[in-house]
Amino acid sequence: MRMRAGQPLRRLAVREEPMKNFVLRGNLCTSRTKDSLSWIPHGYVVCEDGRSAGMFAELQERFRQWPLLDWGDCLILPGLVDLHIHAPQYAFRGTGMDLELLEWLNERAFPEEARYQDLDYAGKAYGIFAENMKFSATARACIFATRHREATELLMDLMEATGLRTMVGKVNMDRNCPENLREGTEESIDETRRWLSDIEGKYDHTEPILTPRFIPACSDAVMRGLGDIRRETGLAVQSHLSENQDEAAWVRELCPWAGCYGEAYDGFGMFGGSCASGSPAGKGGSCAPGGSAGKGSPTVMAHCVWPSGEETKLIKERGVFVAHCPQSNTNLCSGIAPVREYLEEGISVGLGTDVAAGCGESIFRAMADAIQVSKLRWKLAEGAGRPLTLEEAFFLGTKGGGAFFGKAGSLEAGYDFDALVVDDRSLSRPGGLSLRERLERVVYLAEGQSLRAKYVEGREIFVR
Amino acid sequence: MRMRAGQPLRRLAVREEPMKNFVLRGNLCTSRTKDSLSWIPHGYVVCEDGRSAGMFAELQERFRQWPLLDWGDCLILPGLVDLHIHAPQYAFRGTGMDLELLEWLNERAFPEEARYQDLDYAGKAYGIFAENMKFSATARACIFATRHREATELLMDLMEATGLRTMVGKVNMDRNCPENLREGTEESIDETRRWLSDIEGKYDHTEPILTPRFIPACSDAVMRGLGDIRRETGLAVQSHLSENQDEAAWVRELCPWAGCYGEAYDGFGMFGGSCASGSPAGKGGSCAPGGSAGKGSPTVMAHCVWPSGEETKLIKERGVFVAHCPQSNTNLCSGIAPVREYLEEGISVGLGTDVAAGCGESIFRAMADAIQVSKLRWKLAEGAGRPLTLEEAFFLGTKGGGAFFGKAGSLEAGYDFDALVVDDRSLSRPGGLSLRERLERVVYLAEGQSLRAKYVEGREIFVR
């Protein structure tokens, strides 16, 4: 059953039951390894029960009767993955950029986040966020909400409705923040438990993730309580790590028992793979190494701009994912994360937009930013590794970050079927371009790219 | 005569004679000094014979009968100024970003530029460039063409038709470049003279500018010939300076007589203000200091990333403009120009996109890039000055670069009437924003901004 893209797609959009099995045709591109792309010009990628059944130059016999959407000369790419974004900050993205991290939190982020106590405001602001995420190139995201349980549940309802695959966290914060955002220590844990109970079984593709804001805002008691919840539930964890030198110095004061900032999470079982048993804070973590390779849900730490050698070692041992947020690290004068070194160490790295320290939700832009800052680091920082390539940046924004969700971020067989259809005709050109050049343009000129369709786990998110 | 924006504007667009005198109403913003913005909420800016007659909170009696276009809550900003862009490279923007300057020239820029020998190709490619420039936020630009006289004239025809104010240069290059781009030394000067003669009196707002590609591609004889033409014509000059450390080392080999790269231009009377008499290459330039303050047309040098102290001094003495191209300098791993130090020295600085080493033609993006790289320089480079502010970046992209054209880049009385109407409603927000925050968003989220109208010297470029 062959259909031209356009007319049949409208039919697809109004089906009551989404098609479980279908074929997309176009110029396929996916990361094979972290430094190689795989292309099939005018190839076929098959969705079977929400997963990719493979990429083909010629369609196999058994798929020939399945609905086929022919996207002509469009590019078909895996859906992008954002490992770090703050939903409540979306409202003020692109403003307040003249401040450094700790000032920016106090002057911008915290006052805005306090507004999410008001569910009317939250509905309005999160509605805009969810709508923009839906029509972005992002298929999956790790999302910070605020400390407010009800608003977090509302955000989860809205994200569920988009069809994206997301992990959303109610934030914990019981110290070093304005009173109108500060939770009581017990309250913080109780509300987290109530949140998890409220949403249990409620969503198909929206999951909770434990979200201590960062060590300066979380007392040992809150961290201990979260560690307990983690051991009971096996939930994934997201937080911030070594973003800024002042922040790291502050953590050394707050947790003198921790040899590095990462250890301040690790001591509570909040750093890395699954945890079999916990211990209160004390030097030496209690988690089994794990991460994507081990059992249980992994941890993602945003930034990791200023790791000590010890911290890098711990990130690697625990299988912690690094969410590299190049634009945020630039805007807040944080610095440039040593991504080349992380990749050489075999550490799992993905990209984050970190809205609103990053200005927008585009992971294409984050790919370009990652390459650009790696060039400046290479030029300006003593001993820095060579810059990232397009292939590497594309990997980070797809398969690299996708691994946090399991098998995601690739069009290859066995991966969840997350796909983007990109029509780049608006990037007018007088001569021909190779497919790699077309991809490079989409990454660098993301504002000019036009998404025609997005699928997540085989669900049609939109077609236009 | 009061009109609502929208309906009357369509009438304006089809007038045979453009209105010489009219008033725009909206939220006015312009740079007053290099670090202060001037705002008039719901104010009036008056165009009288192509110049601004001033910005007003209340409309003066004598302007009340003039056509008034009320743009409601839109922002009204001065037209932006791009001091450095390569028209023939527009075709491959956003590709080939994994190379450094000298490789990139040989592998990307030169092969593409060679195609402009073919006028059909040139027409197609320059047509796309001119169309995109017309609908961009840029009102004025200094544009490199190629070495080809005919294609350069075609580009000037196309730019004239856009209504923008531009300076366009036929490039001179007679060494160290591929044979199919290399001019004979005499040919280079003869063709330049013929070009200037062909276009004499032909355009209203498109001017020629002398354009030696850069010292490595221009023999002393060509530089001497251009110096002669400059003394005869008083034309402005544009070129490249101290972009890359390898390039600067090469210039030291090529021009051992020059104490710094800038002196290699200066020795031929191609650096700074007007020239009364010339001298062949030899240490010590022959130009009177001038630049914007002196007589004659000034010189603009792109990049200036790696100036020696001596070069900075010469730039200042000669009144040379620096075209700061932050994205290009990042993409080509060139480094980060010391803009803070230039501003403190009182050197004239504007912004350049440097397409295609910069990916796109947005000067809003260049403003954000300038701030961002200044933050990384401040963080990573020993002794670097503090980062640029929004106010400073906005100044660079408007009044700072505008000074190269005379009185341009401001809405203030006496400046050429270049204005943008920006409708930022698409940047949805749940709460209110100050006007400064709205400007900051337009700068950082330029892809989301929507230009409703552009005027250059009072000419309506487009309205939509």
Helix and strand content put the structural class of chain A at alpha/beta
CATH A-level architecture of the largest domain in chain A? Alpha-Beta Barrel
Strand count, sense and barrel status of the largest sheet of chain A are: 8 strands, mixed
| Strand tally of chain A | 18
Any idea of the CATH topology of the largest domain in chain A? TIM Barrel
Mind telling me the CATH class of the largest domain in chain A?
Alpha Beta
Low-confidence stretches of chain A: 4-16, 275-295
What characteristic shape of chain A results from the CA principal axes? globular
Largest interface: A-B, 52 and 52 residues
- Count every helix of chain A, treating DSSP H or I runs of 4 or more residues as helices: 14
CATH superfamily of the largest domain in chain A: Metal-dependent hydrolases
Strand coverage percent of chain A = 15-25%
Backbone CA Rg of chain A: 21 Å
Report helical residue fraction of chain A: 25-40%
Distance between the termini of chain A: 21 Å
The overall number of domains of chain A is 2
Mean pLDDT of chain A: 90
Structure overview:
Two copies of one chain form a homodimer. Chain A is an alpha/beta fold. Chain A has two domains: 2-78 and 411-463, Urease, subunit C, domain 1 (Roll), CATH 2.30.40; 80-405, TIM Barrel (Alpha-Beta Barrel), CATH 3.20.20. Helix content of chain A is 34%, strand content 23%. The first copy, chain A, contains 14 helices and 18 strands. Chain A has helices spanning 7-14, 101-114, 119-134, 149-162, 185-198, 220-233, 245-254, 261-266, 309-318, 326-331, 339-345, 363-380, 390-402, 435-444; strands at 2-4, 21-33, 36-48, 51-56, 68-78, 80-86, 138-144, 165-169, 171-172, 206-208, 211-212, 237-241, 299-303, 321-324, 349-351, 419-423, 450-456, 459-463. In chain A, the strands form four sheets. In chain A, strands 1, 2, 3, 4, 5, 16, 17 and 18 form an eight-stranded mixed sheet that branches. In chain A, β2 and β3 (36-48) form a beta hairpin. The longest helix of chain A has 18 residues, at 363-380. Chain A is globular. The two termini of chain A are 21 Å apart. Chains A and B meet through α3, α10, α12 and α14 of A and α3, α10, α12 and α14 of B.
